[in-house]
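Translate structure to sequence.
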C-alpha cells in the first residue's frame, strides 16, 4: 500500500509556479507535441470520427486539464481505450454531432464525480478487468486497422474483421500494404536505434518516413482529408432528439466511467515516475470532465490521461503543467498554419501506427503479474468478451467473474486436521460461512469420539450458521466424553457468539493486534506443549497457516525483483510503534531503521564512530534511492524520560548511546517545540523537540546533502501520540506539529539546516 506522501492529502511540497521552470517545460512540451500529433490523428481514424475531432481533443485536453492541474505532469488527450466506445456510437448514430453530445454529458458526469470528492471510488475496479478491457480494445483496433493497411474497409465487429482477413489478404492493395507494413516495421525497429537519434519519437519518424516515401514514389493511396481546414472542420455537438436521448445518456455514462478509470489509473502510474507533488485525484477528475465537456461542445473526441504522453513528458524533464499546456498550443499552431502537411499522410500509415498501438495494449508485464496473483482467468474472460461480444458485455463478464472469485475467496474456509492417539489438532482459517459448512463437518467427522481436540480458529469472519455448526459439534463431542479447547487468533468470533454478543464486522484493531490470541479454553491449567503455549511460536504458526498464503505472491515478486522502498522510516525501538501500520504499508514499501529514541548521530566522518545509523541512511539514500526520509518520535518515550532524569546513571552502552540525544535536551531547554494540542508532560515535549533535532542532524550526512541538492529527497518529522493514536507532522512554517490529515497538504517544504 502507498505511503501517505503518495496520496492527495499527504505532506508534500507546495506546487511550483506555472513559470518556475520554463526552459525544461518548453523542451518537454515539444517532445510531447511530436508524439501527440500522429496519435491524435490515428485515434480519430480508429474511432470512425472526423480527423479534426482527434486534433480538437488533443488541443483541449492538454490546455484545460493542464490549467486545472490535478495531476500536473500528466498529459491529457484522445486515448486508444475509448476508440471502441466511440466507434460503436458512430455506427449507431451516423451523426458525429450526437456522439459529441454524449462526450459533453460524459464530461459533466466526471465534473460531478470530482466535485463529490469520490474520485478514488473509480479505482475500485479489478486491475484484471481494466487491463483485459484495454487488451481487448487493442486487439479490436489492430484487427480493424489491418483491413485499412490491406486496402479495404473494416467491419463494425472485431470477430467479423478476423473472419474477413483471409479474403482481404487475397485482395490487398499493394501500395497501401507496403506503406502500412513499413510503418509497423519502423516502429518495432526504432527501439534498437542508439541515442541521441532514438530521442526522436518513433511514431513521428515512422509517419514522416512512410509519408515521404508515398510522395516521392507517387503512390496512389487514400490520404487524410481535413475538409477545408481547421475552422470548416468543426462539427459542434447537437442537442439530441427524443428518439436518441436514451442512447446519448448511456453513451455519456459509459464514456464517463471508462475515461475516469483510465485517467485516474494513469495519474497514479504517473506519480510513480517522478518525485514532485502527488496527484489530487478529485481535482484531476474535475479537470478531465471540463476537458471532455469543452471537447464535446467543439466536436472533439473524448479525452483521458495518456500514459504514453505522460511518461514521455516526465522523461523529457517537465517540471510543471506548463508542458502539457504548451503541447496543446503547438498542436493548434500546427493545424492552423501547417494543416496541408497533415493532408499528405496516407490513411494506411496511420493504420500501421494504430496496429502497433493496439498490440502494445496487450501488455505482457501485466499478464505475468495477473498470473502471479491468480487473476489471469478474469483477464482472459474480459479480453475474449470485449473482442467477441463488444466492450460493455466484455466488461460485464469480467466484472461478474471478478465478483464471483471475490465472493469465493471471502467465503473460503481452510480446515486441517492432524493427530492420533487420542489427541487431535484442528486449524480453521479463512472465512467461516454457511458455504464452508460441508467442508467443516466433513473434517470434524474424521475425529473419533472421546478424544482431546485443540482447535485453532484463525478466521476473519464467522456467520451464525458456521458458529452453530462448530458449537453444536463441540457440545456433542464433550457430551460423549471428549474434550475441546478453542484458541482464537485475530478476532474472538466464537467466544463472543458463545456469550450471546456476536460480532458483525472485524474489529478495527485486527490489523494492529492480529498476532494476539484471545483464548476460550474451558480449563487453562492443563499442561501443554511448548508449541501451543509459547505466544511467539503460536504467532509464527498462524502466519504459516494463513498469512503466508496471502503475502506469498508479493514476497515472491519482491524476492525476484529486489526491494524498492519509497521511504526510509527512522523511529524508536519501542514495542508500541508499528511503522507499517502507521503508514498503511505493505512489505517492500518502507525501509525501517530503529533504535532507542529515534536518534540520528551527527555525521563526523571519523573512523570508529557509531556507524549503525549512518550505514542505514547511506544504504537507503545511495543504494535504494528512497525519495523520502521520516524521523518519527512518539509519546511516553523511555529514552526521553531517561534524558530528563540523567542518563549518565544508567551506565554502559545505553548511557553512551543516549549521549547523542543531549543536543536535543539543550535545544529543548532553550526553545521547546510547540504542539497542537500542547503536550502535558515534559518528556513528551522533549520527544517532539528531539524529532526536529534529528531531522536537522540528518542533513549533516553527505549522501543526504547530495540527494537534497539534486531535488531527489525530502525530509519529514513525525510524532505519534500513543494516547490519541494520532500521527502529527512538523510544520516548519508555524513551528508546530499538526495532525496528518486534510490540512497537511498546505504544509511548507521540509526542514533545512539554517544557513
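Result:
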Amino acid at each position: 500500500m502507498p505511503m501517505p506522501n503518495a496520496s492527495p492529502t499527504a505532506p508534500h511540497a507546495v506546487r511550483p509556479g506555472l513559470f518556475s521552470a520554463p526552459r525544461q517545460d518548453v523542451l518537454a512540451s515539444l517532445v510531447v507535441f511530436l508524439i501527440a500529433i500522429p496519435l491524435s490523428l490515428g485515434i480519430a481514424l480508429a474511432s470512425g470520427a472526423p480527423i479534426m475531432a482527434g486534433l480538437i481533443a488533443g488541443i483541449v485536453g492538454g490546455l484545460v486539464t493542464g490549467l486545472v492541474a490535478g495531476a500536473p505532469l500528466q498529459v491529457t488527450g484522445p486515448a486508444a481505450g475509448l476508440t471502441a466506445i466511440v466507434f460503436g456510437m458512430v455506427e449507431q448514430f451516423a451523426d458525429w454531432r450526437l456522439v459529441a453530445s454524449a462526450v459533453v454529458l460524459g464530461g459533466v458526469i466526471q465534473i460531478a464525480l470530482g466535485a463529490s470528492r469520490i474520485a478514488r471510488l473509480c479505482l475500485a475496479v479489478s486491475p484484471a478487468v481494466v487491463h483485459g478491457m484495454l487488451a481487448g480494445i487493442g486487439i479490436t483496433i489492430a484487427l480493424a486497422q489491418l483491413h485499412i493497411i490491406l486496402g479495404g474497409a473494416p467491419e463494425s465487429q472485431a470477430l467479423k474483421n478476423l473472419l474477413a482477413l483471409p479474403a482481404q489478404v487475397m485482395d490487398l492493395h499493394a501500395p497501401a500494404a507496403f506503406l502500412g507494413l513499413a510503418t509497423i516495421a519502423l516502429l518495432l525497429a526504432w527501439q534498437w536505434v542508439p541515442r541521441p537519434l532514438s530521442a526522436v519519437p518513433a511514431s513521428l519518424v515512422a509517419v514522416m518516413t512512410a509519408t515521404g516515401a508515398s510522395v516521392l514514389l507517387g503512390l496512389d493511396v487514400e490520404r487524410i482529408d481535413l475538409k477545408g481546414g481547421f475552422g470548416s472542420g468543426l462539427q459542434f455537438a447537437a442537442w439530441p432528439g427524443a428518439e436518441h436521448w436514451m442512447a446519448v445518456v448511456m453513451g455519456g455514462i459509459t464514456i464517463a466511467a471508462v475515461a475516469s478509470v483510465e485517467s485516474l489509473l494513469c495519474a497514479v502510474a504517473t506519480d510513480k515516475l517522478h518525485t514532485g507533488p502527488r496527484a489530487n485525484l478529485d481535482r484531476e477528475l474535475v479537470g478531465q470532465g471540463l476537458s471532455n465537456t469543452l471537447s464535446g461542445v467543439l466536436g472533439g473526441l473524448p479525452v483521458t490521461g495518456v500514459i504514453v504522453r505522460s511518461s514521455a513528458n516526465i522523461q523529457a524533464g517537465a517540471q510543471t503543467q506548463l508542458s502539457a499546456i504548451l503541447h496543446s498550443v503547438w498542436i493548434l499552431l500546427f493545424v492552423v498554419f501547417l494543416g496541408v502537411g497533415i493532408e499528405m499522410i496516407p490513411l494506411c500509415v496511420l493504420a500501421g501506427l494504430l496496429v502497433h498501438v493496439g498490440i502494445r495494449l496487450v501488455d505482457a508485464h501485466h499478464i505475468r503479474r495477473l498470473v502471479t496473483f491468480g487473476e489471469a482467468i478474469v483477464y482472459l474472460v474480459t479480453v475474449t468478451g470485449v473482442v467477441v461480444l463488444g466492450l460493455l458485455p466484455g466488461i460485464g463478464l469480467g466484472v461478474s467473474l471478478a465478483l464471483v472469485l471475490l465472493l469465493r475467496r471471502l467465503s473460503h474456509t481452510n480446515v486441517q486436521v492432524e493427530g492420533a492417539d487420542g489427541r487431535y489438532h484442528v486449524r480453521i482459517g479463512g472465512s467461516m460461512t454457511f458455504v464452508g459448512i460441508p467442508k467443516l463437518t466433513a473434517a470434524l467427522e474424521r475425529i473419533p469420539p472421546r478424544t482431546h481436540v485443540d482447535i485453532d480458529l484463525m478466521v476473519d469472519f464467522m456467520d451464525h450458521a458456521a458458529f452453530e455448526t462448530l458449537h453444536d459439534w463441540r457440545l456433542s463431542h464433550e457430551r460423549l466424553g471428549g474434550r475441546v479447547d478453542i484458541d482464537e487468533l485475530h478476532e474472538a468470533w466464537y467466544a463472543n457468539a458463545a456469550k450471546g454478543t456476536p460480532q458483525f464486522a472485524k474489529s478495527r484493531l485486527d490489523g494492529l493486534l492480529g498476532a494476539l490470541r484471545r483464548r476460550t479454553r474451558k480449563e487453562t491449567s492443563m499442561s501443554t506443549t511448548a508449541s501451543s503455549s509459547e505466544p511467539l511460536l503460536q504467532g509464527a504458526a498462524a502466519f504459516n497457516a494463513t498469512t503466508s498464503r496471502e503475502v506469498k505472491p508479493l514476497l515472491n515478486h519482491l524476492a525476484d525483483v529486489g526491494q524498492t522502498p519509497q521511504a526510509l522510516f527512522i523511529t524508536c525501538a519501542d514495542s508500541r510503534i508499528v511503522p507499517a501500520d502507521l503508514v498503511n504499508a505493505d512489505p517492500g514499501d518502507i525501509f525501517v531503521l530503529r533504535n532507542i529514541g529515534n536518534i540520528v548521530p551527527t555525521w563526523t566522518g571519523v573512523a570508529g564512530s557509531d556507524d549503525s545509523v549512518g550505514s542505514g541512511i547511506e544504504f537507503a539514500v545511495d543504494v535504494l534511492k528512497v525519495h523520502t526520509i521520516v524521523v518519527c518520535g512518539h509519546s511516553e518515550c523511555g529514552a526521553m524520560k531517561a534524558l530528563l532524569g540523567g542518563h549518565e546513571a544508567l551506565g554502559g552502552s545505553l548511557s553512551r548511546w543516549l549521549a547523542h540525544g543531549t543536543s536535543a535536551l539543550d535545544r529543548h531547554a532553550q526553545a521547546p517545540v510547540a504542539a497542537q494540542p500542547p503536550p502535558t508532560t515534559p518528556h513528551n515535549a522533549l520527544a517532539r523537540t528531539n524529532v526536529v533535532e534529528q531531522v536537522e542532524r540528518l542533513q549533516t550526512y553527505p549522501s543526504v546533502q547530495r540527494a537534497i541538492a539534486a531535488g531527489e529527497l525530502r525530509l519529514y518529522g513525525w510524532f505519534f501520540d500513543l494516547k490519541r493514536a494520532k500521527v502529527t507532522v512538523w510544520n516548519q512554517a508555524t513551528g508546530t506539529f499538526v495532525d496528518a490529515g486534510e490540512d497537511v497538504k498546505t504544509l511548507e517544504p521540509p526542514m533545512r539546516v539554517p544557513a
